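Quick one before lunch.
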Amino acid sequence: MPAKHAILSASSSARWMACPPSARAESKMEDKPSIFAAEGTLAHAWGEYFLRQKYLPGTGVEPEEEMDGEMSEAVRFYVDAVSEVFEAEKAKGNHPFISVEQRLDFSPWVPKGFGTGDAVIVSDGTIEIMDLKYGKGVLVLAKDNPQLRLYALGAWWTFKDIFPFKNVRMAIVQPRLNNLDKDTLTVPELRSWGYMVKEKAALAWNGDGHRKAGPHCRFCKCRDTCGVLSRYLLDPVTGKAAETLTDDQIAEIILKAGDIKKYLTDISDYALAKAVDNGKAWPGLKVVEGRSVRKISDEGKAADVLKLNGYNDIYKPQTLKTITELEKLCGKKRFGDLMKDVIIKPKGKPTLVPASDRRPEFVSDDFDDSVL
Ligand code: SF4
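Model of the iron/sulfur cluster complex:
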């Protein structure tokens, strides 16, 4: 069934701004439910509940589903980040106003555009929009973030007649990456960005413009069949390859390697699902049964038989769960506190990453500076 949410949503704005026809094309495709989306929804529900309890008592409903340790810690990080802004405004003698899960209408710029501000704090001359990101797969920054800017336009539009404010502050709160990132614009700067986005939104709304691939394709629902994305990712490997690759070509392949690997997995999954679920025949391909691994169907019975026949050394020693699983159980901070004496972090292997990566450059222990 086609999606029911806004065609030009704020969360997909980086995509439809860069590739305007993607919005209409995506709206005809089915949403795929994901465990990550369900986790994010639960974290937001708990964040909303705690903020309401603290600042808007009597207005919230406790979510029915419990949180694990990791989520509980992440929600605390978010609630603390919001509270810090609110309390700092109060300490300055201002009279801040907070709204949670606030509907923000940015339709004056984007046709039928609306979104939800997780926490919006209006204070003396400034409005702050705080957006909780529960995911940890991709670091999200506030600077030049079109989703936050659309929320900011919506917040300005919603509150401009009640609270005169000059600046908008936009914050990403991404607890599982320990990321609290902020950007500030004056209202005129925000509005001038709004003029630019309005043109792009009109193109996207009408399904005009040209497809353009880039990092924004990562979550596009059209990616499985998009030829523009395929050319963008694979041309460096197949299209432009001269007899000997240039340094630029090698660097381009490495820069895109993660996206290329993901693309190859996605397109294989897509083709397999079509073949199995819809009986689609792909030229030159067929579906076979994959390699299967033998399994013991009844461990108790197997153990009894082995012991009866004199084999007693049949159990593995007890092993700890992985660090990721234990962190999920206890919460990252509590786990870190409890395990501080027993966790070691060996030096990582050298890895090629984009020059813009925040990590400092690798220095080899083997480097002999006596030769300098
Ligand atoms: S996958 Fe294709 S349609 Fe989707 S954003 Fe990328 S280029 Fe546009």
